[in-house]
């Protein structure tokens, strides 16, 4: 099984990717996690993408495409996977298709997790994540509060509101998402790959 999850931030892509990994043994590939790790480690790529992500802007396609290509061209390339957050644009989708053809792989489905913008803002702005780089567990002030307010259940570290979880940043990210997603989904619909899912439901119902 080879899947792409499409949806705005806060639509539950990460949660569903985790469940697909647990149920079907897929490899989860999330470019967002790759970028955050690079930022935390202070790599050249991290220094390039950090300011963009902080402003809620998309990382340029050539950078994202190369990060993914390096993974698939490497010796441990994934054969069965779920893509979480890539491709995000039409040009990324075209590049990803070309990469998969070179690796003799093909997608089985593209899952569109649809959700209203206001629900996205409510979900993400309530997120609080552990400030300990070795932990990084996230909670939600309403849906999944920590046992001790402001403290991580796992390591006891202080919880913080990340810059990319602030409302003004979320709304910029949503603007970028809508600007790019229609063409992306049209591209995959022409291939008969898109499956539409209502992401306002519970994680169990979505799964």
What's the helix-strand series? EHEHHHEHEHEEEHEH
Q: Strands across the major sheet, in which order?
A: 2-3-1-4-8
The SS-based structural class is alpha/beta
Radius of gyration over all CA atoms, rounded: 17 Å
3D shape:
globular
| Percentage of residues in helical conformation | 40-55%
- Major sheet attributes: 5 strands, parallel
Q: On the 0-100 scale, what is the average pLDDT?
A: 90
Distance between the termini: 15 Å
Number of strands: 8
How many helices? 8
Outline the low-pLDDT stretches: none
Strand content: 15-25%
List keywords for this structure.
207 residues, alpha/beta, three-stranded antiparallel sheet, 8 helices, 46% helix, globular
Task: Tell me what you see in this structure.
This protein has 207 residues and is α/β, with parallel strands linked by helices. 46% of the residues lie in helices and 16% in strands. It contains 8 helices and 8 strands. It has helices at residues 13-24, 31-41, 44-54, 61-73, 90-102, 117-125, 167-189, 203-206, and strands at residues 2-6, 27-30, 81-84, 109-114, 127-130, 138-140, 159-160, 194-198. It has a 5-stranded parallel sheet with strand order 2-3-1-4-8, with helices on both faces. The protein has a 3-stranded antiparallel sheet with strand order 6-5-7. A hairpin with a 7-residue loop joins strand 5 and strand 6. Helix 4 packs parallel to helix 5. The protein starts with a strand and ends with a helix. The model has no long low-confidence stretch (mean pLDDT 90).
